[in-house]
Design goal:
Layout: H1 2-35, H2 47-58, E1 65-66, H3 81-84, E2 92-93, H4 94-106, E3 115-120, E4 123-124, E5 129-134, E6 145-148, E7 154-156, E8 177-184, E9 201-204, E10 212-217
Parallel strand pairs: 3-10
Antiparallel strand pairs: 1-2, 3-4, 3-7, 5-6, 5-8, 8-9
The protein binds calcium ion (2 copies).
One calcium ion binds next to strand 2.
């Protein structure tokens, strides 16, 4: 009979409807994931090319590695020597340099939070402009990060919004890399060794676990 037939079909229809609702929900969840914030890619550096450039620039005696004397020009390396000089012979070869840069990529963290503190002659220095400028052999891959110290001399480094790659727009911070650090002040004259001829440098990488770098400057 049609009635009993209908009655028998009811649960089937309900079941089918439930199944359709379930499928729709799964689809919303999956689509939602796809439409969410884009996964941020790690720093993508042609590490062999960058290491080659570094050698051309800093291996002044052409022996294929950077000695302590040559490394004075790349202060980010001596500051983090154990991470670069992996065989412990006191110099950094092109291969070691590339290997360390490969490690940044494997750390899969595209942007890091870094705070610094600046003091001049033992006192916190407010209003200092701090710039982390990529080493020239990395400048095509990473951006300069900067900030101004607060009343306590502290600053958080960020890539200015207009220079931030699209995928980092909502992620202020600094990229993994090797930087020269330049510190200037609108009212105080700081020695050239802190800015135009900076001897300050830092490697930024997830495994460094540096929460706050201290720059203790002297006016003389
Ligand atoms: Ca050399
Ligand atoms: Ca070495």
């Amino acid at each position: 009979m049609p009635v009993s037939c209908n009655l028998e079909r009811m649960p089937l229809r309900t079941c089918r409807r439930s199944l359709l609702i379930c499928l729709a929900m799964v689809s919303i969840i999956v689509t939602g994931c796809n439409r969410g914030p884009k996964r941020i890619k790690p720093v993508n550096i042609d590490t062999r090319a960058a290491a080659k450039l570094a050698m051309e620039q800093y291996d002044t005696d052409g022996d294929g590695s950077l000695s302590a004397d040559e490394l004075k020009q790349v202060p980010a390396i001596p500051e983090s020597m154990d991470n670069f000089d992996q065989d412990g012979d006191g110099v950094v070869s092109s291969r070691e340099l590339a290997k360390r840069m490969d490690q940044w990529e494997k750390q899969l963290t595209p942007i890091l939070s870094l705070r610094c503190r600046v003091a001049l002659d033992g006192r916190p220095l407010p209003d200092a402009e701090v710039e982390f400028v990529p080493e020239s052999f990395l400048e095509q891959y990473i951006e300069t990060a900067k900030g101004t110290t607060d009343a306590t001399g502290a600053v958080r480094l960020e890539i200015p919004e207009q220079n931030r790659p699209p995928e980092l727009m909502t992620h202020p911070g600094i990229q993994a890399g090797m930087y020269k650090v330049r510190i200037t002040h609108p009212r105080k004259k700081l020695p050239a060794r802190y800015n135009t001829e900076s001897e300050l440098g830092q490697e930024v990488a997830k495994d460094r676990r540096v929460i706050e770098t201290k720059f203790e400057l002297t006016s003389r």
